[in-house]
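Morning run. Coffee first, then this:
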Amino acid sequence: MKLNNRESRELAALPGEIAALETEQSALSVKISSPEYFRQSPDILRVDQARGAEIEKLLMEKLERWETLEAKAKAAAS
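And here it is:
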């Protein structure tokens, strides 16, 4: 089964979206690992923890979708 136009655009965009999430995840990790980080308000810590979990979830979803679309594109090329 061939990819439709929406799926083709989605497949083309996924690597950039994944890279952006990985960059944000890395920046958040650096922020959290700084010695002064835990001196901040508990609200900031909660927001950062929630965003870290959200990034992880989004990355997994996007990687799974990428695998699905790649497999569909390869099957269509065969």
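The helical segments are 5-32, 42-77. Good start to the day.
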